[in-house]
Amino acid sequence: MNYRHAYHAGNFADVVKHAVLSRLVEHLKQKDKAFRAIDTHAGIGRYDLASVEAGKTGEWQGGIGRVSEPRTAALLQPYLEAVRLENPDGGLRRYPGSPLIVRHLLRKQDRLTAIELHSEDAARLKAVFAGDIQTRVIELDGWLALGAHLPPKEKRGLVLVDPPFEEEGEFQRLVENLRRAHRRWPGGIYALWYPIKDRKAVAAFRAALKETGIPKLLDIGFEIRPASSEPSLDGSGLVVVNPPFTLEAELRLMLPALHGVLAVEQPSRWTIEWLAGE
Ligand code: SAM
Known about the structure:
The protein is α/β, with parallel strands linked by helices. It contains ten helices and ten strands. Helix 1 runs parallel beside helix 5 (98-105) and helix 1 (12-28) packs antiparallel against helix 10. Bound molecules: S-adenosylmethionine.
């Protein structure tokens, strides 16, 4: 496990993922009934944008560094509020990872389970949430959690699956594990992140998802430049299973606003496609 999210925190892919994640949490809050969010590959929770790691790539400057300007859509407010809460003195020094964004948005009755396999990262994540009775941090293989932790006792909620994609076969693993998780908990909302780097692999992933027979699969693609000649992160995607009925319309407002500030080269595009309907 060599992947360290500290090099990438707050980049364009984080922004899109976290903006959509925030909409899913906001949707769950429309009913009083408690829910649980499960983050299977949680990272360290809080990132220092002035760190050596963040400075080495500068990726956040092409991501959250561009979005914190005021001209973005109102639908981004919950996400941007979570970022602001991490920067109480103004400016942009700290960036919240997915578990911390979710945590900032939870109500008193809601719960978060954050899972991280890398032991140093899990220890840092535990420190971030020390004393927080609404959050449980577990050092565990997130793929295993997709079995053992589903369905949560609240029977409402969402699961974010955000693997590092550093190993061969990660797309296939995502499909297999979704199939398994969905059998255990067909009513959960799932958000699966994937890189748009190798277009053939992405096409095969989308086709494999269609073949699962799982209904209500919404695929979001966000490309910031045309396909590069050398493998590089030209875009990112998120497949949402059981999306709230309002999500597609929200995305049609949010994605163009985000694309306007995050795209680096044209032609590039954002896409929304139903891989499977009802
Ligand atoms: N979800 C985080 C966010 O949006 O802020 C970023 C997560 S990062 C892309 C992937 C994380 O998964 C890394 O912190 C890595 O250590 C962790 N990881 C790798 N393999 C794992 C596994 N099998 N189970 C749980 N975590 C794993």
